[in-house]
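Please predict the structure of the following assembly.
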Amino acid sequence: MTTRRIAWSIAALVLVALVALDRPAALARGRGSMGPAQRLLGPIASVAASVEWIRFRVVLDGGDPARAYGHARRALDLDARTPAGWVTLADHFVFGRASPLEAEDAAERRKWIRAGLDVLERGERRTAAPEDLAFYAAVVKATFLAGIPDEALGWPGGPRALLEDARRDAERALELGGPDAAAVLEFIAERLRDLDEEGR
Amino acid sequence: MIPALVALHARRVAKPVTVAVTVGVATLAALGAPVEPGFTGEFAVDADGVRAGATWTAGLVALVALTLVPAARIPARWFRAEGSWLGTSRASRSTIVASAGAGVAAGCLALTTAVAAVAAITVDDRQAEVYELGAVAGPTRSIVLGPGESFEQSLEGTALTRASRIRVRVMPTFGGKAPATRALHGTPDRLTTARVARRAWLEVPADPSRPRVAVTNVGDGALAVLGPDAVEVWRPSRALLGGHARLALHVALFVATLAAVALGVGAWMSPGIAALLAFALWIGARTALPTGWIPGGEHLGVALAAIGEGRSPSPLGAGPVATAVALHAAAWGSARAALGSWFDEVRA
């Protein structure tokens, strides 16, 4: 075996060892959630994830949501650290599938909204910027969902429950260092005062 | 043809490192996530089809990137180092070129088989029924159905079984009182209602005794049946490896033909330029010629899309095969012509 081959073999072994010896405590925040493809491909995985998000949109527009969700799943496999992917999917569920255009009754709307909020919650555990997703969940709940008339959504506990949930999300975002969470907390407090005055 | 020469050129195209890189790229594309991505299971997610499609797409890119230059480099090897033993052998120019061409094709087939193996191994859902496209039908243009109006498509003459599936492509459109609508669809005995708020496929099982499908707009909005070929019939498929073997043939034909063209033009210019030219010629042909006849044309795109949907591609048609044979003959002829003066020189 030539020296060159030995050098290449050692380099390959080192690479494999780096990939295999995953010690989350020693890694940067969010890296523990990286799949094998992202660990091996690094920034290329993010580019591949972007392609998958484009395909998600194209396939969704083509009328095949099951396959579109497959692309979304692959995109999140490839790059779970970027919060934008989680937000894209959550937006699709909360603002697309749960819209009155697509969901006829309140129960179906709630199902899709829960799916969207679930995406944000799971994303918070895997992304490199959990404060962004906690902040976004607070904003969606406080400024959008809590404003939907009760008869159209029928959320258990009504707007007050949504605002309380949003407050917990915003507090978490603030703890994690989210820069604008304080403003959302003020907004939520104001809305809760409004509900108190309205006796709801 | 000389078997040893065929094997030599096959090994040059499908070198161990090339096989390893191709399999590595395809495997990377096929890797699923060990962590849950956040789907609740309340709705369908076609992850296997998407994974198979990604594996093949990545594998195809790797195949094209890794086979063209080695194929284009073969004539350069003849001119530089191998003339002394090839030229003094009893083999004719045609034999040398045909052996090289066959070796390149065999190498491409071996690499494609490796990608097919990765794709077939990594797909989880082996128990699921695999379908393939049986027929397409429907109006040549889109039809708009107002509230209460119907569309009916006869499927007389189409081979249907109880296991066949029929699907109709629809979307809501302008002209009704509401932006979304409801569609009553199906075969006469099995009618289903679905809300249509975006482009969608309405899918129903087939009834062989009544070969027709109907869609009625029972909502307040307008409903478009999107032509052409708005109706598709999918039948159970017995394709080997869930259709991966068929796709492998589509891919192998494309890659082998591109490599043969690279070999043919590589006899007249440097390998890198020849590889790029072969690829550019394919892009140009896709733009200017009927893509149904080009290896790597429409049939390959449709086959990749079918695998991406978890369905089996259709078998390889005669058109692309005929074009591939003609292109191989032309490429081999080009390489043979380039060998002329060199052959005379060496034998003199």
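Residues 260 and 328 of chain B are 6 Å apart (CA to CA). The radius of gyration of chain B is 25 Å.
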